[in-house]
User: What shape does this take?
Amino acid sequence: MQLLRIAARAWTHLALLCHMVRLRADVVHAHDVNTLPTAWLAARLSGARLVYDAHEISTSREGYTSFRKLVAIVEKHLMPRADGTITTTEARAKFFARAYGIARPLVLQNRPREQSPQVSNRIRQELDLNEPWPIVLYQGGVQQGRGLERLARIAGQVPDAYFVFVGGGRLDASLRKIAQELQIEERVRFIPTVALAELPSYTASADIGVQPIENTCLNHYTTDSNKLFEYVQAGLPVIASDLPEIRRIVRQHDLGLLVPEGNSEALAGALRRMVGDAQLRAHHAGCARAAAPTLSWEVQESQLVELYRRILGQSRPFAS
Assistant: This one.
């Protein structure tokens, strides 16, 4: 099966390479390290410029243990050859600059486009939630290192609240088992992965957004996470791990409560406080709505256009 997977991926990348070369693009934009070798070769064969967009530190990332040496070799040789580089946080930009001796990459955070305020009852209706309790939402991949098993157990210590996980992944069965063992299945609920276009209506129908990511690797330590910005666009107060990049955003805009990562007691206390205090939720929700225009993709997109303009040697902006 492993050989079949490797063969399938190799065939996919070969087809992608042929297609990119045939297009004769001006710029090839490689999104993360798994596309970098193919994109670099396509750029070389077609005479295109290369942009490397590193959304993760894959040499220190959950699930990448067996690939770290290979990733380091690929990035060490190819990242300095890119005409432009991008990453998602200041901490990651500093890491790449030091690790590979390159100019600090352009920082473009994983922000969604600005969304108009919306009133939604989608989660309550879809899950038939009858009690008027606040909904604590986690959305995103259900994976290791994100504090999700801890969150599911803590749900038993936070009464009068629903905990809803939107997304799928390897821990789905484990989280369901925890809820069953604690006999809180009525309060801990699950919605499978939804289409990106549909996600905002789910987010807006919650009351609290939670991001309990753990410091299990450098990639997690340096993250600010796309879900944090999605919560902001939906006007949700947040409870998040007190890691440097997350801390900076939450404190700057007064978005909610920070808790020491991996600290179950602190997370449970913060959740009880937010669940039990409607005025506190309203305050941080108002701060999130005020910050939404600033923390949107529209504020950043001109920087991406300017990067393309610069590496193409154009003296005037082009349409984005």
Notes: The longest helix spans residues 2-23.
